[in-house]
Amino acid sequence: MRVKSIFQSHFSWEESAHNKICFSSRIFYHFILLCFVLIVVISCDPKEENISNNSSLKLTYSLDTIHFDTLLTERSSITQRLIVRNGNDEAINLNNISLGKSANSDYDIYVNGIEGKSFSDKVIYGNDSMLILVEVFIDPMDEELPYLVKDSIQFSYNGNLDDVKLVAYGQDAIYLNRQTLECNTTWVKGKPYVLYDTISVEQSCTLTMEEGTRVFLDNGSALVIDGTLLMNGTAANRIIVKNTRFDEEFKNAPGQWNAIYFGETSIGNMVKYATITNGVIGLNLDTRADDEIELQISNSRIGHMSSAGIRSLGADLDLLNVEIFDCATELLGVLEGGKVDIDHCTFSNEPNQFSRRQESLRFLDEGAESKDLDITITNSIIWGRQSEELIAELTRPSSVKNIANNIIRSRSEELEVSNDLSQENYYPKFARPGIFDFRLSEQSPAIDTALESSTTIDLLDSLRDEKPDLGAYEWIGMEEEK
Questions:
Q1: Same domain, 435 and 289
Q2: What secondary structure does DSSP assign to 123-144, as a single string?
Q3: Domain assignment of residue 196, given as a range
């Protein structure tokens, strides 16, 4: 019994010692674990959220100046973006973000989606950024020419004061919205005319645009002529007809307004020294007066159209020194007959912003209401990426065509008799077709090959020499820009 008692006593001591050791081990383990957690917590302390008052920490900006293109007054601008970056490890508190002119500013800024003129206590965490949106709405100042509208966004933090400049040009305008003009109205240079919806000219009335007139058409808008349109531009002061967006990405964008539409009663129309761009159809004619030219066009450019440059249903047309370019369907479509006289014109659908399959020039005399087709094309360039860029289908016995002394992209054996045909890319050798500059280069085969005609000047009013060139431009070097 004594042996057993001693054994039990010894066993109890060992068990107690073992328990103490295990308990100590657990305490040590938890101590180590706690230290590890503390180390992790300390090491994960979000330093980037610690706001620093150190004035040596600087912010950077994606732009030092935000430019807006010329903006029509009383219209909101596009939205510009400014990114403010904190490349430091610690956070910075912006005490104030504000416009320099405060409540009197034409600009608005958006911070975290909230619009305002001034904001306080905005934090940018370390190695993070802030997006600021900027817009401008310019009140009119009754000025004819564009005027400068300036301000700045100011940033105050840690004793530092930064600023980003804001620059825009405002353009006052005369706004017209869904109305019929008074009979015999004249538009003049100065403030542009901005058209919304449909603006109409009644039968027997005339709209005259004097030299330097600017007409901006909004989305879906049109100018409808049931009377007469006289566009009297000059080489020094061309008439401009285009879209209402002046941003760079809209410069060559087609389809931004509808058309200048000539109704059945429209007669005696004239377009001189005009540039018409960015619409669906530049000039759309549905007029069929007998024995009178419905439209004369000279020294003018038409382009960047999402459909056609000129489309005619039976009208009589006279084109001299005209350039038509970059249209999704046809550059010139004469679809129901009419008398068409074309001299010294340049038609180019290469390059082209569209995928198209039909010819650039189309002449048809089909249809129940079609007139006889009488075509004369001389001294012109007809070019594009299609293998055939001119089609003339005459079905009426009295229809005639005279197509001679032109450069044409075609394979037609009939046209080959009296024209210079080619399938070679860039055969006319335009100066800079990639930027829609269709003047001639010094190597162009169009130089000195035109027949004598009634004109002594080209599209830019430059004199043609004793050996004139094909197309709308006489080659004189590249001194002047269009």
A1: yes
A2: EE-TTEEEEEEEEEBPPP---S
A3: 173-440
Say if residue 220 is in the same domain as residue 142: no
Peptide bond into 445 cis (omega under 30): no
Per the CB < 8 A criterion, the answer to whether 440 and 433 are in contact is: no
Residues belonging to the chain:
482
In 40-90, the DSSP E strands lie at: 60-61, 65-67, 71-72, 80-86
pTM for this model (two decimals): 0.82
Please give the structure tokens belonging to residue 323: 């350039």
Are 100 and 76 in the same domain? yes
Q: Does an H or E element contain 5, and which?
A: helix 2-43
Helix (H) or strand (E) holding 156: strand 147-157
Pairing label, strands 407-408, 381-384 = parallel
Residues 295 and 424 in one domain: yes
Extract the tokens encoding 383. 């070019």
- In which residue are the tokens 């050996």 written? 467
- Amino acid making up residue 268: G
Q: Helix %, strand %, coil % for the chain, to 5?
A: 10, 45, 45
> Rounded to an integer, what distance in angstroms lies between the CA atom of residue 173 and that of residue 93?
43
Residue 369 has a pLDDT of 82
Q: Which residue has the tokens 């509808």?
A: 258
11: confidence class by pLDDT, cuts 50, 70, 90: very low
Tell me the pLDDT tens digit for each residue of 121-159: 999 999 999 999 999 999 998 888 889 999 999 999 999
Question: pLDDT value at position 351?
Answer: 85
